[in-house]
Structure formats: structure tokens, C-alpha cells
Amino acid sequence: MKIGILNLQGAVSEHYDITKKAIENLGINAECENVRYADDVASCDGIIISGGESTVIGKIIFERGIDKIIKENNIPVFGTCAGMVLLAKKIDFNQPLLGLMDIVVKRNAFGSQKNSFESNIKFLGEDFNGVFIRAPAISSYDKTKDDIKVLATLDDQVIAIKQGHNIACSFHPELTDDTRIHEYFLKEVLQCVE
Q1: Is 81 marked active-site?
Q2: What is the 8-class DSSP label of residue 85?
Q3: Residue 62, class by beta-carbon neighbours within 10 Å (0-12 exposed, 13-18 middle, 19+ buried)?
Q4: Which tens digit of pLDDT belongs to each residue from 112-161?
Q5: Measured on CA atoms in the order 181, 142, 86, 130, is the torsion positive or negative?
Q6: Which one, of 101, 37, 99, 89, lies nearest residue 66 by Cα?
Q7: Catalytic residue from among 14, 44, 165, 172
């Protein structure tokens, strides 16, 4: 199994490092590598899209045809912060979106860079340290879809959600030493390759 860390902008090295640790913790036969082009993405079983500038990342994804590869091959995606924005069907701004999840996202829902914060959250009922940097939030999601599951909330705002094998988080689990959320994604990808 191969996990690609989309290396276009953002906290790429942090995602790479924590994904390697998550693979080791699970004891699975997998590798991760930084990917930048559609051909690289095509060889992956799962993709991680980090935080950064969602408009820039989205533009490059479409210019390089990465969106087509992800959709044609039904590759599971884990998006954090800007990655969450890109996974949405609709946001409060006009920009390219992958539109893989039936969610509506508000960019910068928790304020600007200076409003960044950390908070204890419950991810699937377990305590987790959430790092929020210019974080988006889900303003609504399609409650009629059987494959949507809310994974975490903060002050009644949805901050982590799963649809099918795709996962979107408002916060940055890669900026902690806790591998559990990355392990959760790896298990989703494993279900697709077994």
C-alpha cells in the first residue's frame, strides 16, 4: 500500500513524518512518499492533502490533472484544514474544489492566523489535542447520506467528518505527536486495497 502526501504547499513534511510513524505503529506493509504530479498520484492507494492556501493547492491540482486521477481511481483522500476545504462540494468562496464530500465548508471559521489556538477535542469519543490555524469548519452536510459520519465537533461546529473512505479535518493532527487520526485513515485505505 502506498500513501501519497500531496507536496504542493503546506505542512507536507509533518504529514510525511507522522504517516511514517502511523505505518510503523500499525505494523502494516505500506510506504508513504511525497507526490506532485498526476502520474505520481496514480500509483497511490491513498492521498493526504495538508493545510496551506486552498486556492493555490486547488489551482495546481486542476492544472496538473490530479483531480481526474483521484476521481477516476476512487482514491481515498484525507484532507486537513485547506484539504478539508478542497474536499467540499461547496464553500463560502469561489475556487476550484475536488467536491468529493457532501459538505459545505466555511473558510477561516475560527478567525485569522492570530486567532489560532489549541483545544482538547473528542475524536470518535477519544481525547485528542486539536491544533487550529485559520481553521475552516463544516457549516452543513447532507444528513440524508448513509456514508457520512461526524468524527468530531467543537462548540457545536463539525470539525472532522468522514464520507465513504474520505476524511476531512479542520485542525492539524500532523502538528502533534499523536498518530491515531492518521492510523484511522490508513485503516480506511486498507479496506480499499484488501
Answers
A1: yes
A2: H
A3: middle
A4: 778 889 999 999 999 999 999 989 999 999 999 999 999 999 988 899 99
A5: negative
A6: 37
A7: 172
Spatial distance between the Cα atoms of 164 and 172, rounded to a whole number of angstroms: 21
The verdict on pTM exceeding 0.90 is yes
Rounded to an integer, what distance in angstroms lies between the CA atom of residue 113 and that of residue 81? Answer: 13
User: What radius of gyration, in Å, describes the C-alpha atoms of the chain?
Assistant: 15
Mean pLDDT of the chain: 94
Residue 92 has pLDDT above 90, yes or no: no
Does 182 participate in catalysis according to the annotation? Answer: no
What does 54-82 look like in DSSP terms, one character per residue? HHHHHHHHHHTTHHHHHHHTT--EEEETH
The grid coordinates listed for 85 are: 476545504
Spacing of C-alpha 184 from chain mean position: 12
Within 10 angstroms of residue 133's Cβ, the number of other Cβ atoms is: 18
Q: Which residue in the list 169, 174, 182, 183 is annotated as catalytic?
A: 174
Helix crossing, 12-26 with 180-193: angle to 10°? 70
**Residue 193 three-state SS:** helix
pLDDT for res 88: 97
Q: Does the annotation count 172 as an active-site position?
A: yes
pLDDT band at 52 (very low <50, low <70, confident <90, very high): confident
